[in-house]
Design brief:
By secondary structure, this protein is an all-alpha fold. The protein has twelve helices and no strands. It is globular and about 65 Å long.
């Protein structure tokens, strides 16, 4: 079998790998559940390549992510659920429907009106999806997606995937709740809430209650996400930026010590702190 630019070849390769007769033993054993962590990992690797502005890595990582889509579609086809072509048809239908200002008769062209149309159409889609899910549940379903109880009303937060990174999940849940007015209308109450949660964490710390400490620390983080959201900031992006900054400065400490013939293990905290400050000053001196 030869490589190809045609998506059909990738689908053929996946079918061959999953073939119980002569396929790859590892691939044959996989399921939706075992492959899902790799799917998430590949999405993060795409984001990492973009962050590093590495076009060659991005090309490769996009291929790895595409493989994950083909993999799940193959698993679904084997179960008689849907095929890769159904995935393509579904997303093309969704994009055409969500952009009536491009593919339909609506003439509004501004970014604001496009966003409004997008949100309106997404709300319609959520309602349709909830109705379809209930119908599957009532009929016994196909074992996939029929998790809602027959006759139950869809809940507002049901559409937020629970496997988002925690900060992003907090942001998405808050955004969804804010749509119905469950939100702060000023920054001051959020600051007060943060102070309240910090005091409660401090109290749990004083009592030495590990479970309460974890609970209160979660409340504190959730409140900080609220503050970030109020100011239009992405908490996940902000934390990643902080981590990258920390790594850069810590790398400077290690590299400086190695250049002196020393090591991290042998260095004192004062030495490391001095190099940390040096790295910070160098970063601040770099023109943006």
């Amino acid at each position: 079998m030869q490589p190809s630019r045609d998506i059909a070849r990738l689908i053929e390769i996946m079918a061959a790998l999953r073939n119980p007769d002569g396929g790859c033993p590892w691939d044959v054993e996989q399921s939706f559940e075992t492959i899902a962590p790799y799917t998430i990992e590949e999405a993060y690797e795409v984001a990492d390549a973009i962050e590093r502005r590495d076009a060659e890595d991005l090309r490769e990582e996009l291929g790895d992510l595409l493989l994950q889509v083909v993999y799940h579609a193959r698993l679904a086809e084997e179960k008689g659920l849907f095929r890769f072509e159904d995935v393509v048809e579904g997303i093309t239908q969704k994009m055409i429907r969500r952009h009536p200002h491009v593919f339909g008769d609506e003439t509004a062209r501004s970014a604001r009106s496009a966003k409004g149309q997008w949100e309106r159409i997404k709300a319609e889609e959520r309602a349709e999806k909830a109705a379809a899910r209930q119908a599957r549940a009532a009929s016994g379903g196909d074992g996939w997606g029929a998790t809602a109880l027959a006759g139950a009303s869809p809940l507002l937060l049901d559409g937020v995937p629970s496997n988002f990174p925690a900060l992003t999940l907090a942001l998405k849940v808050q955004e969804r709740a804010a749509r119905v007015g469950f939100d702060w209308d000023a920054a001051a109450p959020i600051h007060a809430k943060i102070a309240e949660e910090f005091a409660e964490f401090d109290g749990a710390l004083t009592e030495g209650d590990a479970d309460a400490m974890e609970d209160e620390f979660g409340d504190l983080l959730f409140s900080l996400v609220n503050l970030a959201r109020y100011h239009g900031l992405d908490p996940e992006k902000a934390l990643r930026r902080c981590i990258l900054k920390f790594r850069s400065r810590f790398n400077h400490i290690e590299e400086s010590l190695v250049a002196r013939g020393a090591s991290l293990e042998a260095a004192s905290l004062d030495e490391m702190e001095a190099l940390w400050v040096e790295a910070k000053r160098k970063a601040q001196a770099v023109p943006v």
